[in-house]
């Protein structure tokens, strides 16, 4: 009987310890939510929340040329945040505002960050850049031959 009680006490102690560890990790995650700085190696997914959507521009400046109009509810992959401006790589490449000059939210971080979406966005960005470089090389060298190639 004493062995049963001590075994129950050990199990209860382990469960209690596991619950405290889990609570601590969840609490720490909530405290750090939204504080992660996006990079190309570690992009962050945001969702457009403003009913008017979000305007994607070619450059950081808010007077650069317009590239695309995002609709409310669309998700974007952000790789850089500078103030209230964010550089996105998916669904298109460009810069968007995360809030208006008056502080009205335009987009917010998604609660769940999906790795597969980040990988897909990175692959898409890589392919776009590769194709852009390839077309630039072909424009400058229509024969397709590398002038450095000794053959």
Give the fraction of residues assigned to helices.
25-40%
Question: Any idea what the shape is?
Answer: flat
Derived from helix and strand composition plus strand pairing, the structural class reads: alpha+beta
Question: How do the helices and strands follow one another from N- to C-terminus?
Answer: HEEEEEEEH
Which regions have little confidence, pLDDT < 50, spanning 5+ residues?
none
By DSSP (H or I, 4+ residues per run), the number of helices equals 2
Number of beta strands = 7
Beta percentage is: 15-25%
Terminal residue distance: 87 Å
Radius of gyration: 24 Å
Mean pLDDT: 80
Sketch the major β-sheet.
5 strands, antiparallel
Q: How do the strands line up in the largest sheet? A: 6-5-4-1-7
